[in-house]
Target: histidine kinase
Amino acid sequence: MRLRDYLKDRLWFFLIAAISLGLMLLFLTAFRVSGQLTATICVIFGLFLIAEETAGFFRKKRFYDDMQGKLDGLDKKYLIHEMLKRPDFLDGQIMYDGFCIANKSMCENVSAYKRTADDFREFIEMWVHEIKLPVASLQLMAHNHCDELGEKFQEQLSRIDGYTDQVLYYARSENAEKDYIIKETALKRTVANVAMKNRETAQLCGASIETEGLGLSVMTDGKWLEFILGQLMANSLKYTVEGREPVIRISAEDLPDRVLLRFRDNGTGICEADLPRIFEKSFTGENGRTYAKSTGMGLYIVKNLCDRLGHSITAASEKDKYTEFTIAFAKNKFYKMV
Model:
């Protein structure tokens, strides 16, 4: 708090004090009080005014400067009242009590919304598990009809299954730390599982999958990594170029401080303007509008899960040539020691 601002805020008080002093001098003159006594009274009045304002300024400045400093250093600003001591001046006490009441009300409202959100998330998870049973039954029925119509049914059911997985993982992504287990995971096995799950769709697209250097292990959660790679593969199989054989190349590189997993396809690519925003929630971009209906959630969930797992993911692309995603897995001996 600056002295200039404090004095500006107290202008009304100084105005009243000046009027009071003027009236006092007027009465002293009317009663023919000696000039020395009048001067003494004015000096005492001025000293009292200076002392009172100085004490008030420094008392408030200490509290408000402390509050501002702690606010700047706090990540969660709503906890400011927990960091402050109740001041010894009235307006500060009123403000402090208001902070406490407002924070209590906010916590109650947040708790109510959190309970509602938790209930909804549990319902979504239960619904996804329930819907997977009829989807699996329909996939088996479609598999038993080895004609062209059965293959089309199989493709659409695989897409439905992928979208239900997407809903489930999105519902869990905000609390992923409760559901994942970080352990040494073989990339070769994980990629093989993803390729097996997307086998029918890849065959229908005529796509081929090439791998290189996958004999490495990384510290991650295998189930979540399978979902991440599954989303990348689903996008690659969705955005293919007509007349060009789709090729998906998955390779790994072992560096001193991390392992890089590269996922590259030769599909439609991503235009340069869209590339910085592909991990944003609900962003569909040019491809989502041109080639297929897209929710813009797949890559958002992928980025969110990578962040939760402690991995980084980046993308590079050239329109109508290729798209490449790179996932970096840090090497951390702590997990191995545990």
